[in-house]
Amino acid sequence: MKIAAKISVSFLVLAVILTFINSYILYSVMEDTLEREIDARLDSTANSRAAHIKTYLEMLKLSIGQLSKSVVLENFLHADEDKEAFDNALQRLKRTKEANPAIGDFLLLNKNGSVIASSNEKYIGLDRSTDVYFIAGQKRVFIKDAYYSEGTKEGLLVTSCPFLDTKTGELLGVLAAEVKLDELYKVTTDRTGLGKTGEIIIVNKYGFLITPSRFLEDTFLKQRVDTNNFWTCMLQSDPEYDHSTEPEVLFSRDYRGVPTVGAHVYMPEMQWAVLGKIDVSEGLAPLRKINNIFATTLVVTPFLVWLVGMFLAGFITRPIRKLQKGVEIVGAGNLDYKVGIGTKDEVG
Q1: Rounded CA gap, 164 and 175, in Å?
Q2: CA 315: distance to chain centroid?
Q3: Cα(157)–Cα(184) distance, rounded to whole angstroms?
């Protein structure tokens, strides 16, 4: 191989190696930076929505607690089949319901778990003694997890609390409120900062969606979310859970089977997982453009360097070619021939 060819090939090989190494390092750094940025945005969004949900649930508990101080309802619980007290209690519950659009119905239960008054009179007489909201509601303010009501044909929560005698503190009954899920839906379906494929969903402890999906219809307590994002979140229910074992950026296929970047917040009171996610195809879309730029650089840069190498190789080997020609002429017998290279390097 001629010296010029060796020099140009050396330039080409060196350019390819250096360009590949630099492109790989830059791409890796930018990929890591973008992934962290997406994770931070999703984490912030999920935490913000979880805080909003927590505030809403606290307001529900506060509201039912305030109503449990009603003198009208307490008088009815003390009364023994007094029609006037009964009518007053019904009116109190109905007016309170009308003032709270998020409430489905109020129910007042006696100590045996029977509904003795309600904003919806069809509930009166029903036995709720085995329902968790009655059992737990005798001791504290409680929120029953989302369930499907056959009566109203919609998803509901139930918040309940003990109704105590204001003088003696004796348990008189339990006050409960069926709560519509509209407010939760408003929080999770807000698309701000989530792009075209991002969404916030709430999943119960059994792994079923209780808020609407952005992509599927009729998912309430039907669509299972068996994903790494969900199970990583639910691991936080273990008091000894080590958060340092979580990956910095959580990649997971979602309930559609689509690769996503995800974040999560665990809500211990309800045992809910608030999941935030966005499709990898959208979240990492800028990397495709960067990848195209690097691919072009990987082709164009070595080619340009090769052209420069060819020029330099020709410049460097030109005196050598003159010397070679001169040697041939002198060797042929023309001893008066002067090569005339005129350089001050080794060849000159």
Answers
A1: 10
A2: 60
A3: 10
Parallel, antiparallel or unpaired: strands 199-203 and 103-110: unpaired
Q: What is the pTM of this model?
A: 0.78
Q: How far apart are CA 311 and CA 303, in angstroms?
A: 13
Secondary structure of residue 334 in the 3-state scheme: coil
pLDDT band of residue 347 (cuts 50, 70, 90) is: low
Cα(202)–Cα(273) distance, rounded to whole angstroms?
Answer: 6
Six token digits for residue 286 = 């800028």
Q: What is the pLDDT of residues 244-267, one digit of tens each?
A: 666 667 888 999 999 999 999 999
Which residues are registered as beta bridge partners of 202?
274
Whether 19 shows a pLDDT value over 90: the answer reads no
Q: What is the DSSP letter of 304?
A: H
Of 88, 115, 165, 131, which is closest to residue 106 (Cα–Cα)? Answer: 115
Report how far residue 346's alpha carbon sits from residue 75's, in angstroms, rounded to the nearest whole number. 115
200 with 44: CB under 8 angstroms?
no
Partnered with residue 309 across adjacent β-strands are none
pLDDT at 185: 93
CA 132 and chain centroid, separation: 31
Contact 223, 216 (CB under 8 A): yes
